[in-house]
């Protein structure tokens, strides 16, 4: 599922070039500029309207595109930069472009909800009819299918990427995929390859200056590095540092361009093998050698942990890694891979890796500065890819899995009976921003572990850690209202469990199956969810007992499944039994007890016993307000159910006022696309109809229908109900 463009936070503003000049790409940049603005009296060939820059990672494709963007932007052209790493970014970016080209918001809503013409056709009509010249860049399009039509290939030219029909437009793509049949004959392709020795020498001098030697010596080193920009950057950064802090006076010190070249010659024959591809080996060996030499320099300065830390980072998911949380010095020190490392030493290692251009250190600006999750380290994708294939990393994969999971173990909940005191409880809304950062690298590590193909015999406890982490990730994804994404992730995890022989009736796997059932429930796959839960509950009872917290959780989800199918009396009977058990197990004012009571109150509302439900909801709300903030997300959902009850009791004005207050809170605004807040908007529309404000009610219902179609699908019962209410309001 894809969040609407206005809430994604994806920027389409071109990134700014750094202070260093772009070397060796002048001719390519000029060629692209001529395609954008042909000289007077000439016209461009149709295929020149779509330009494809392809090559190995780190070769400067994106930097070239940035330079083109800068120059055309200075000439007054509209310039848009879309990261093509995933479909959400592409869809959100193209929607934003349509908005900037003055497409009405309601037209965008209809198109993106599938109720009108396709979003692709809408955006491209706007682009082709734009009177103002424009440049559209798809960056890092390494998965071209993301730009293809739903039932075809990119080369068909009918997807997000296509040939402009206007002389005002130019499309530029950066990618690793250099296959002509991928991009079609209607595009022009350029290989962004190695730099010439002369241009490579300029890159070295830009970074290291003249202290390491003459321009001729820099040229010799550039030739030895095969002109690979990433290798040149690594060497230049290395030599700049070596001369800035000239530690050591032995003949083995590497401070000049010639020293570096000779050291590379001595290391000839080392490097990595990647699936037996000698061409790839030849291309990347200088890159690997370059950073390995940088790591040697750091080791010579006493930072010998830099190498294993870099390898460790590569074993986490391909995403910014919150190092203040995940790189715990105590846990690192306990591993033979890293050895004794304190906070100061770890800080020096990370800073030095960043100084040598092996990682980037940054912050997540959306998080408060005091948040430990806000500080992240990111590897260059090529560095991460190559490190994972190094022989010592491949041979030590099990040891790295062990260390990664030991570090990620810090995220697990320690006391399920006291969740509010847990630092990373995914069910608590104030932890969701942290999980937004924690989930991607953790998810990658868990899936990598489950893909390893065998149970960990030396450390069987690691399997429990991995599956518990998977459960927490899934709970976070479900908590923020993305059941479709949770389903995909959980299916991958359960497939991995089957592959390595995990008993799916054991406790950790049952937890994943429970969350998978919850994902089905939230998407309206009620029959499947009920069948699966009826299999899970006896297994949990046999392992844990009928009133264990986990068994009660599955019984609650089963009751909710029954409730959503309209079997309200059956659901009420089960929920009353669950609430009584929760009183005994967790107490009358526990979070889960409150959740079960809320479900019971809903069952009573749906049966029309409004006075009884009102009393129950008022008591739940009073307890919640004593223990939780007034705008806590769960508190808002209880208030919404109470307002639904008020509406049914004929108190539409009172319900309307409270719903407006609910939807104006920061909590509701942050989760405006959450299914619970969409439900509150539906009830708001009902209140508006009851009070005669039909114009506003229609506008609200249109939004509810569109959001539910996108998130829940056309066939979900809530979507159908909203559509029925809208048609009834319009008299259709």
Describe this entry's structure for a reader.
With 732 residues, the protein is mainly α. Helix 8 packs parallel to helix 10. The chain is globular and about 90 Å long. The two termini are 30 Å apart. The model is unreliable at 1-9 and 269-280 (pLDDT under 50). InterPro entries: NLR-like, P-loop_NTPase, TPR-like_helical_dom_sf. Pfam families: TPR_10. This is Tetratricopeptide repeat protein.
Outline the secondary-structure elements:
Elements: H1 5-8, H2 26-36, E1 50-54, H3 61-74, E2 78-83, H4 87-100, H5 105-112, H6 119-128, E3 134-139, E4 169-175, H7 180-183, E5 188-191, H8 197-208, H9 215-224, H10 229-244, H11 257-266, H12 278-300, H13 306-314, E6 321-322, H14 323-326, H15 329-333, H16 343-355, E7 359-363, E8 375-379, H17 381-388, H18 391-395, H19 397-408, H20 432-450, H21 461-479, H22 483-499, H23 507-522, H24 526-544, H25 549-564, H26 568-585, H27 591-606, H28 610-627, H29 633-648, H30 652-664, H31 666-670, H32 675-690, H33 694-712, H34 717-730
Parallel strand pairs: 1-4, 1-5, 2-3, 3-4
Antiparallel strand pairs: 6-8, 7-8
Helix pairs in contact: 2-3, 4-6, 8-9, 8-10, 9-11, 10-12, 13-17, 19-20, 19-21, 20-21, 20-22, 21-22, 21-23, 22-23, 23-24, 23-25, 24-25, 25-26, 25-27, 26-27, 27-28, 27-29, 28-29, 29-30, 29-32, 30-32, 32-33, 33-34
Pfam families: TPR_10 (PF13374)
Organism: Micromonospora vulcania
Protein name: Tetratricopeptide repeat protein
């Amino acid at each position: 599922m894809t969040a609407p463009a206005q809430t994604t936070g994806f920027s389409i503003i071109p990134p700014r070039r750094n202070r260093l000049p772009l070397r060796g790409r002048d001719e390519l940049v000029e060629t692209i500029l001529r395609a954008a603005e042909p000289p007077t009296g000439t016209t461009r060939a149709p295929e020149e309207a779509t330009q494809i820059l392809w090559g190995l990672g780190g070769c400067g494709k994106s930097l070239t595109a940035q330079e083109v963007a800068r120059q055309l932007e200075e000439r007054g052209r509209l310039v848009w930069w879309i990261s093509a790493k995933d479909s959400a970014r592409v869809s959100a970016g193209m929607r934003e472009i349509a908005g900037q080209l003055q497409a009405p918001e309601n037209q965008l809503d209809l198109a993106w909800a599938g109720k009108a013409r396709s979003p692709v056709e809408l955006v491209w009509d706007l682009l082709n009819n734009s009177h103002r010249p424009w440049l559209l860049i798809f960056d890092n399009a390494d998965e071209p299918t993301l730009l293809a039509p739903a039932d075809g290939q990119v080369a068909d030219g009918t997807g997000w990427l296509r040939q402009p029909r206007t002389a005002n437009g130019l499309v530029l793509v950066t990618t690793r995929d250099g296959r002509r049949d991928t991009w079609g004959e209607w595009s022009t392709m350029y290989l962004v390859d190695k730099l010439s020795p002369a241009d490579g020498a300029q890159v070295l001098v830009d970074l290291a200056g003249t202290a390491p030697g003459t321009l001729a010596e820099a040229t010799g080193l550039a030739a030895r590095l095969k002109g690979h920009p990433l290798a040149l950057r690594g060497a230049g950064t290395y030599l700049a540092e070596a001369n800035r802090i000239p530690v050591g006076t032995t003949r083995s010190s590497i401070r000049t361009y010639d020293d570096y070249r000779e050291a590379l010659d001595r290391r000839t024959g080392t490097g990595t093998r990647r699936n037996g591809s000698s061409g790839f080996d030849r291309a990347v060996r200088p890159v690997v050698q370059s950073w390995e030499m940088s790591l040697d320099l750091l080791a010579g300065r006493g930072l010998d942990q830099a190498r294993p830390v870099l390898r460790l980072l590569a074993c986490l998911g391909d995403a910014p890694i919150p190092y203040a949380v995940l790189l715990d010095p105590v846990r690192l020190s306990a591993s033979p891979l890293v050895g004794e490392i304190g906070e100061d030493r770890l800080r020096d290692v990370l800073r030095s890796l960043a100084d040598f251009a092996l990682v980037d250190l940054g912050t997540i600006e959306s998080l408060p500065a005091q948040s430990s999750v806000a500080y992240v380290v990111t590897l260059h994708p090529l560095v991460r890819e190559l490190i994972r294939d190094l022989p010592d990393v491949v041979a030590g994969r099990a040891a790295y899995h062990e260390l990664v999971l030991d570090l990620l173990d810090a995220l697990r909940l320690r006391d399920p009976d006291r969740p509010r005191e847990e630092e990373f409880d995914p069910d608590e809304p104030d932890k969701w921003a942290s999980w937004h950062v924690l989930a991607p690298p953790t998810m990658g590590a868990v899936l990598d572990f489950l893909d390893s193909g065998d149970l960990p015999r030396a450390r069987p406890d690691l399997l429990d850690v991995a599956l518990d982490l998977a459960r927490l990730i899934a709970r976070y994804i479900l908590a923020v209202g993305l059941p479709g994404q949770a389903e995909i992730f959980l299916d991958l995890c359960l497939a991995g469990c089957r592959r390595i022989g995990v008993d799916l009736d054991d406790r950790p796997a049952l937890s994943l199956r429970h969350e998978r059932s919850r994902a089905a429930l939230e998407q309206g796959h009620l029959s499947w969810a009920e069948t699966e839960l009826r299999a899970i509950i006896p297994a949990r009872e046999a392992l844990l007992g009928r009133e264990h917290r986990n068994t009660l959780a599955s019984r609650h989800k089963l009751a909710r499944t029954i409730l959503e199918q309209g079997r309200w009396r059956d659901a009420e009977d089960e929920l009353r039994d669950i609430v009584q058990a929760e009183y005994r197990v967790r107490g009358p004012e526990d979070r889960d007890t409150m959740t079960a009571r809320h479900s019971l109150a809903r069952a009573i509302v749906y049966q029309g016993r409004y006075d009884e439900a009102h009393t129950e909801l008022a008591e739940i709300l009073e307890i919640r307000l004593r223990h939780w903030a007034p705008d806590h997300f769960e508190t808002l959902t209880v208030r919404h159910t109470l307002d639904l009850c008020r509406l049914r009791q004929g108190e539409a004005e009172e319900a309307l006022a409270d719903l407006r207050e609910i939807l104006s809170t920061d909590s509701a605004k942050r989760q405006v696309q959450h299914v619970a807040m969409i439900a509150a908007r539906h009830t708001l529309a009902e209140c508006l109809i009851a009070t005669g404000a039909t114009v506003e009610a229609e506008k609200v219902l249109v939004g509810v229908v569109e959001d539910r179609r996108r998130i829940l699908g056309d066939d979900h019962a809530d979507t159908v109900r909203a559509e029925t209410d809208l048609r009834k309001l319009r008299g259709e």
